[in-house]
Amino acid sequence: MGIVANKVTLEQQLAGRDFLTLADYNKEEIGYLLELAAHVKQQKQSGNIEQPLKGKTLGMIFEKSSTRTRVSFEAGIYQLGGTGLFLKSDDIQIGRGELISDTAKVLSGYLDGIMIRTYSQKDVEALAKHASIPVINGLTDTYHPCQVLADMQTIQEVKGGLKGIKVAYIGDGNNMAHSLMLGGATMGMNISIAAPEGYQPDEAITEKAMSLAGVEGCKVEVTDNPEQAVQQADVIYTDVWASMGQESEQTLREKKFADYQVNKELCSLAKKDAVIMHCLPAHRGEEVTADIIDGEQSVIFQQAENRLHAQKALMTALMG
Ligand code: CP
Ligand code: NVA
Q1: Among 16, 127, 146, 256, which residue is least crowded by beta carbons within 10 Å?
Q2: Are both 275 and 311 inside the same structural domain?
Q3: What digits encode the pLDDT tens for the residues 272-283?
Q4: Domain-embedded: residue 170
Q5: Is the CB of 279 under 6 A from ligand 2?
Q6: Which one is catalytic: 17, 70, 144, 253?
Q7: Which atom of ligand 1 approaches the CA of 280 most closely?
């Protein structure tokens, strides 16, 4: 009701904005994006598609690999009436050292929005600072906000809401953990991260998430004990132990994270109707066993599909 009443204000508030981290978005703004995502999904399913981005172009810069992000953004902008340009960083001058600030200014003259997947969050911030069009973070080493937007849409669908829902995230305190903590706390969810010493989430981000949780009356906690984290969990979430760029640490990480596998035994300690989530790509037999990720309680493909709907909502709001 509050969100509907403020629809025009929220539309104005979001138009032209960057989407670099969920920490920049308040509860009403995220709530609005999720409502729009549900609407966009329903429209696609009924075959009645609006094209609010007719004639608009999204540039998509990739410095890391991708299946879901690339395809869902490219299909999404096309479905909205626009065009997506895949820009592999090696193929554009950024790969040969052209300044991000120059690239941002040049691309702003051609495009209506930029999605970027890269290593450093600072590079995404620099791009946004110098671009006059919206910049969307398609994953950095620090954050993956588009994924968490789709995750929250999925949790709303399967659990009927977000407030008071407990998510236990088991594994590396990485980009996924950071965005889940920030987005979850903003929406009143309880987020429990279980990660081994040395691999826990960034302290400043954890503090920020805890202070957001304080405002919403929910809880963000970090522990090294997965059994404790999954107590009363509605959602069990995991991600790879070695993220993109950490391939050389694979063997070391397999040892460090050996006690952090999401398997039948661990899941039996959560609520009976807990769902299993994973941003994908997954490594069966490492962070999650095949019986769990392919089992009845897994919602991973619904979650992956929602990348399309959530990002169509995001592009509509920012670039429309
Ligand atoms: N979850 C996710 O972002 O997948 P991709 O790396 O395939 O884009
Ligand atoms: N943490 C993973 C997420 C992939 C979508 C990575 O950064 O590789």
Answers
A1: 16
A2: no
A3: 999 999 999 999
A4: yes
A5: yes
A6: 144
A7: 1
